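Methods, example record. To illustrate the input and output format used throughout this study, we show the complete record for Serine protease gd N-terminal domain-containing protein. The sequence lines were provided to the predictor; the line carrying structure tokens was produced by it.
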Amino acid sequence: MVHYHVDMAKSDITLFILCCILKLVHFQLIPSNPCPNIFRYQQTDGVVHGRVEFTNDGSGVYALSVNMSVAVFVSNDKNIRLHLLTSPNDVANGAPLVYNVYFPIENAIPKPTKIVFNNVVYCSSPPATCI
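The corresponding predicted structure is encoded as:
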């Protein structure tokens, strides 16, 4: 009987290690955020994306440019995607402009390197580097 319990203990440890490895495979490393006043990382249904928010200046013209960097190879056809969440009616009424930033690769989370809104640079930082 003692031998059976020892085998169970080894089995439990093996299962624990396997679970840890599986969690690490799905782990997404979120880089430091050099733009905390306007950019933040969010997670929805296990997928990390960015969110950018600006005060509505009432100009009626809104141009957003977001540059991001990741320390892995990404092909040229893989770009971030911006999506305005604020409805046109809410924008017209002066609501803040809120954008989701979708990343091209789920397991390589980029960091913002430059965020420009209506020709004003709100944030600038060096690109991500390999460790």
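Annotations derived from this record:
The two ends are 49 Å apart (CA to CA).
Confidence is low (pLDDT under 50) at residues 1-8, 15-26.
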